[in-house]
């Protein structure tokens, strides 16, 4: 990671005061997409949402983690709680594996889990209507902005996501005994619930499927009130104040 120390902090949104909770957004999304959830938590935590694709030059996993580290250093944050949505679960897992002493706890929302190589692509593409179902106006708006502003970085991140092997990071986070939780939509049409359950098992994490009304892969920002309710039941240090 030393070769990336010159990276500047990432662009980010910050809402609230209290224990720092770093929210890592999904593929092609923007920090602003998650502001409704952040505002629901702002009375108990400082929610920081970095723009994880907003890197100068090429996007690599190492540079993304270095940018995240630089962001936290610029804010003077020694230890943080982490919340990752979908693709954002990958840098969350990588950060926790790289800096376990800086990581208080992890929550993964409908994240990429344990799929390797192009298994994820096959899983997503076997049901294209499921992908179309996710295209809410706010998701579409954020994705279009990301494609316009950072097309190369988005493509590089997508390719990395399809071919990466997350098993070493899973083993390191599990060995570090970082408290972990996995939350899953009750109608995720993009990622298999069995994959999320296996991911939780390997992490020794709790696994919770959303109760109540039907929610899909993007419930973190499509149904922020419901997602916040589920977060409140996890006993997180980030929300204890």
Give me a quick take on this structure.
With 241 residues, the protein is α/β, with parallel strands linked by helices. The protein has helices spanning 35-41, 61-74, 89-98, 119-125, 128-133, 137-149, 151-163, 167-175, 193-203, 219-222, 224-232; strands at residues 12-15, 19-24, 45-50, 80-85, 103-109, 180-184, 206-209.
Give the SSE map.
Layout: E1 12-15, E2 19-24, H1 35-41, E3 45-50, H2 61-74, E4 80-85, H3 89-98, E5 103-109, H4 119-125, H5 128-133, H6 137-149, H7 151-163, H8 167-175, E6 180-184, H9 193-203, E7 206-209, H10 219-222, H11 224-232
Parallel strand pairs: 2-3, 2-4, 4-5, 5-6, 6-7
Antiparallel strand pairs: 1-3
Helix pairs in contact: 1-11, 3-8
Q: Which descriptors would you attach to this protein?
A:
single chain, 241 residues, alpha/beta
Distance between the termini: 34 Å
Provide the structure class: alpha/beta
Uncertain regions: pLDDT < 50 for 5+ in a row?
117-121
Kindly state the mean pLDDT as a whole number? 88
What does this structure look like?
The chain has 241 residues and is an alpha/beta fold. Helix content is 43%, strand content 16%. It has 11 helices and 7 strands. It has a 7-stranded mixed beta sheet, with helices on both faces. Helix 3 packs across helix 8. The longest helix is centred in the N-terminal third of the chain and has 14 residues. The chain is globular, with a radius of gyration of 16 Å. About 2% of the residues have low confidence.
